[in-house]
Each structure stands twice: as C-alpha cells, then as structure tokens.
Amino acid sequence: MNTRGVHAAQITAELLLQLFDLPISFHRCLVPISGGVNAALMLSQAIWATEQLAAERHGAEANGWFTKSQEAWSEETGLSRWEQETARRSLRNAGFLEERRVGMPAKLWFRVRPDRVWRALQAQAADPVGVADSVRDPV
Predict the structure, then answer these.
(1) pLDDT in tens, 7-20
(2) Burial environment of residue 118 by CB neighbours within 10 A (0 to 12, 13 to 18, 19 or more)
C-alpha cells in the first residue's frame, strides 16, 4: 500500500497556511557585526520593536526603551532561553543593545543603540573581514 499518497492528501491549503503563518526575517547585514545569526535575528527584532513603539506613540518620546518577555522573544524568534542570553550578551558587549531591570517584580527593558549599529555597519563596509572578528564575543 502506498502511504505516501495518503499523507499528501491530508495536507490541505488551510493546514499549510497555519504551519507557515509568519516567517521570521532579519537583516542579513547584521550577521557579521553582531557575532552571528541569533544575535542578528534578535537585533533585527529589537529594531522592529523600537519602530513599532515609535509608531504607536505617534512620535511621543519613549527614549527608545521597550519591554519584551523571554516568552515573547521565543515566540517571535524561535530562540531558546540560552540562545537569547548568548545573543543578548553579544549585543550588549558590542554596544548595540542596552538593558535595564525596572519595577517590582522587575521587568527587563531594552534599547537599541542605532548610532553604534550604524558605525559598525560603516566599518564593516570599509573592512568586511576585520569587523566581524573584532565584534564577536569570545564565549
């Protein structure tokens, strides 16, 4: 009996739309300056969150700080707790991401440093080999 045909017939367009809901995308140019794909993915999501915050507040000054739980990061990026922690460390060490804990119970807040990201991208464009080595966190 050919079970391959039976399984293929059970996959519907509706099921595929549920499986492939929202793709995870990130800015490829951030990989060499951030230290890897996970850090680039997290930085891309942080940049997106910052843009969304600015749009929601209609230009009101929030100083770029946003909060996002570990669960939210996992849901958005697919990164595990340990992958997130490693990526965050890389981004903090490179100066691309600031963190602070506020409140009781404490919430973790993040802020992207776009000036630092921009300088690193400029340096990467000028010296594509040297920047990647100098930014990586020696874990």
Answers:
(1) 555 778 887 777 77
(2) exposed
